[in-house]
Amino acid sequence: MIKQANRSCKHSYWVLSLLLTIGISEAESSSSLNDDRDRQILEKLTPAQLQEFDAKLREAMTLYYENGFSHATPLFQEIAIKVDTLDVLYWYGKSALGSGAVEVAITKFQEILTRNPALSIVRLDLALAYLRQGNKEAAQEQLTTLKASQPSEEIQSQLAMVENAMNQSDKDLFVSLGASIGLQSDSNINARANDLPVGISTEKVSGVGLSTTANANVVYSFDKSKNYLWSGQLSHFNLNHQKSKPYDYSQVDINTGPRYMDESWRLDLPVGYVDRRYGHAELSESWYAAPTVTYKIQKDLDLTVAYRFEDEKFNDSANAPQDNKTYTFSIKPSLLFPSEESNSKQLMVASLLGGVSHRDAEANPFSYDEWNVTPSLFMRFDSDTETLIQAQLQWKNYDGNIALAGVPPNREDRKLAFNATLKQPLMDHFSASLSYGYTDNNSNTALYEYNKHVIGLSFGTDWNY
Is pTM, for the whole model, over 0.70? Predict the structure, then answer.
């Protein structure tokens, strides 16, 4: 049941933290590597003892895959006292490593290798356990021994991941930079997705714009285990229309805050600032707080819960009625479907985001309650091609309406949106993306009825330091 890792992922402080916490081989099931001694142990068990052994092992394995390492470890320990097969010792060591009992994990991995030095994946886990202990010399010794054994290509790939973890274990600062440029064709750039103050007009204007993005992410780690962090992010979006300058739009978002992360939890507490411009004129600025918690319920099931408070002020006094405070709560379960092939990059993630929002504006026509549901599907293939497909259903009930004859006293909108993006790496650090979006907004107020198609093609670059 000892198996090589079945996932490949980019090296980052996130990957490093997970590697140092639970090791590299998230084993699932595989052919038994029990030796003659193990078989003799199993043959001596009575049917009743075998049944008891199987029941306890199932319970321990269930806890392990639900990330209940602290509860699984004592069970594996109890089992190993009577049935110390290689499989049991391996899971005992893996669970101990996940619960933070690093010295216990080292002892169990050493015991396995004493009986069978050819188990390469165990040697990798032993190297990572030493690395988490802070003993880089012992970790390097295990890697050197493994290299000398001329391991398979799969093991060499995992070995490279461990060496990268060693190189980054002393790093405190992680930086990622990205940028993109492209063209965006919009069939209705006059549609007011968020009640932007562009005037009362039902004219449908289409156009092609030049879109650019830039982003930076900086993470500082306060400890070697990479659990306590401080994060800072900066993102900029700009859209320029050659023939429709009044509809140009740009936004700058900057946020910073503490982050905690371990094998089961991730907690972010950022505060941020947003500056928006429309038609090259200052539109609004806002401050926000957005605490977010992600919990790994099981090995392939995550749950994210987020809250956001935003206080927005419009720069033009004529738009003061739109000044608002918005409160948003969302919950998103995500189910991962990794490839069964140990060296495959394939991955599929299905998510369902549900959210509620309340906006309290200075004037009732801009205050509303919103409900939305957003299913999404992310897929990555062995070619590194990535696809993201999203759909959204949104309901908005406003506290008032615009002061025009013949309109209902309270505006109600129902929106359907669909988006699909295809991203393909071209070479190291560069990629191309093709996107399509469709929006259909139905409203009981004709002024806010619209639909639009948006097609985009962009080229981007990403760098990690």
Answer: yes
